[in-house]
Write a structure and sequence with these properties.
By secondary structure, the protein is an alpha+beta fold. It has two domains: 1-30; 56-275, no CATH class. It has helices spanning 2-26, 103-114, 116-119, 132-135, 264-272, and strands at residues 56-60, 140-144, 148-153, 159-163, 178-184, 187-193, 213-222, 225-233, 242-250. Strands 1-2-3-4-5-6-7-8-9 form a nine-stranded mixed beta barrel. A hairpin with a 2-residue loop joins strand 7 (213-222) and strand 8. It is globular and about 60 Å long.
């Protein structure tokens, strides 16, 4: 009986080995996980200047803009809308699951979350900042040149230029920060500093100070997918650096383009309606 049992285990192990081998073969021999520290064998096409070509229109497909951390489904901001605009559940994109807030910063996050409809900069059509612009539910485009890379975002027509000259200094804090890039093998690495302290990471009230530094990493893992990782550092808000990671997908519609989404006029009544002169 023991021999028969061992034989059954051996057969099962062999079948599993075959399944794994076939799966890896179908994926070109690479690791298909979207976690942290994933090693990839894919080599992106090159630009005329020899850099990995990441140009295209990309979009995240997750609930990170609602909340970077794992969360359950919840009612939306107005009960009159019913299930429309309710908060969908999400697995979260934070390494380790939890953002390491300092005690006072956690209290502020909780206050933000309680009154997010009034306080969230997105509601006011402010530019979203980095990294939030990456995983809002709208596409963005990457355009590469020999000297710079342009990121342009559909939401609020936001944009930023990634410069490769480390001698250049930021003239002033900005809503989209100051981006300096470099290539690390197949990965585009961008250090983003000089952020405005007013931007949030998501609709759940996750916030930062003007000491924020974001180190982004964009890596093509196949022709139509980028692996995105960002390390967040802010000693005024967090007890230690922390990371987020997610895939970004190429928008492949034959006529795909960024549309104009200038949302300022949608927020004017909310922000300035109380200033209107009464008859």
């Amino acid at each position: 009986m023991r021999s028969a049992s061992l034989n059954s285990v051996s057969v099962l192990q062999a079948v599993l080995a075959i399944v794994v081998a076939v799966s890896l073969s179908a994926c070109g021999g690479r690791d298909v996980a979207f976690g942290f520290g994933v090693e990839q064998e894919y080599r992106a096409p090159r630009t005329a200047h020899g850099a990995p070509n990441l140009s295209g229109i990309w979009q995240a497909n997750n609930t990170a803009n609602w909340n970077l951390e794992a969360h359950v489904a919840q009612a939306g901001p107005m009960y009159q809308l019913g299930a429309a605009f309710s908060i969908p559940p999400g697995l979260g994109v934070v390494e380790g699951g939890e953002i390491p807030y300092l005690p006072a910063a956690l209290e502020k996050r909780n206050a933000n979350r309680k009154d997010w409809v009034k306080l969230d900069p997105e509601v006011k059509c402010y530019m979203p900042g980095i990294p939030r612009a990456t995983y809002m539910p709208y596409p963005f485009q990457i355009v590469q040149t020999a000297d710079n890379i342009l990121f342009t975002y559909e939401y609020a027509s936001a944009s930023r230029v990634v410069r490769f000259n480390p001698e250049l200094k930021s003239p002033a804090p900005a809503w989209m920060g100051w981006s300096l890039g470099r290539w690390d093998g197949e990965s585009l690495v961008i250090e983003v500093t000089d952020h405005m302290p007013d931007t949030w990471f998501d609709r759940a009230g996750n916030h930062h100070s003007d000491a924020l530094k974001v180190t982004e990493r964009y890596t093509a893992i196949d022709a139509n997918t980028l692996q995105y990782e960002a390390t967040i550092e802010d000693p005024q808000t967090f007890s230690k650096p922390w990371k987020i990671a997610m895939p970004l997908y190429r928008r492949r519609e034959p006529n795909m383009q960024l549309m104009e989404y200038k949302c300022v006029e949608f927020a004017e009544e909310l922000m300035y309606g109380h200033l209107r002169k009464k008859p």
